[in-house]
What we know:
alpha/beta; 2 domains
Amino acid sequence: MIPDFQTIMLPTLEILADKKEHSLQDLISQISDKFKLTEKEKNELVPSGVQTKMYNRVTWVLTHFKKAHLAYTIRRGVFGITQEGMKILESKPPRIDLKFLKEIPEYKQWKDSYIKDWQDTHSSDKKDIVEEIETDKTPEELLDYSYSQLKEELAIELIEKIKECSPSFFERLVIDLLIKMGYGGSRKEAGKVIGKSGDGGIDGIINEDKLGLDTIYIQAKKWDNTVPIAQIRDFAGSLLSKKAKKGIFLSTSDFPKGAYDFVSSIEPKIILINGRELAELMIEYGVGVATKINYEVKKMDNDYFEE
């Protein structure tokens, strides 16, 4: 199990106690070995996928240590322990965490100054929400977690809204989504909604590319319960009757495991997209959603400071 960033504070300082120069990767490697992490755990990414969890957590440990004057940067990506850090270890603390660091004057001064600056730049009605939050997550992990929660709630809201719409609207939505994903070009030239009696179980068609070299047939059904596998078989039969090679079956609910086994064993090629996947694609490609607010997260550009 990957330890949280407060748990690795004491082990990190203990590694630095040999007074040698330690690179960030060296610290990550030693901490990973100490906690007997598997290769999968070592390579596990934060939700945003931009870096590993261990990289993120060790980096934040060092940030807090530098604010507490327990560690310092020798040169880019290389760190050492301070005399204050050695004194802390000599006291043999059972654990070092954020609560422990707040007892260090230099750290407390930095934290108090940070909070005051935040209060001074925000409206008075928000000052009362500024408080210390003890957490096992780093700032990036908290941001990723909050984003994931908002995305999850939006996905649920989208599916519920789609279920309230007419079947014909859902079919048009699916065509719009596929066009946004790069199939066929414009709506006029790429997608066609069939959606009428006698369509042979096919709700729409779309060109796979702008030149129309291949056609994808679509089945889009609003379901509350799991889609019966018989529906998938009927769709496959419709594709065969049209000598079609590719099809997409979308639903607001889910498919049984047998449906996935079935489509993986036949020709033509059929892709199943359930409600959750449909909502995630709508969010990713901006269909039926609008941007409420953007947060731009920046990091220091070390290359700029190279002389």
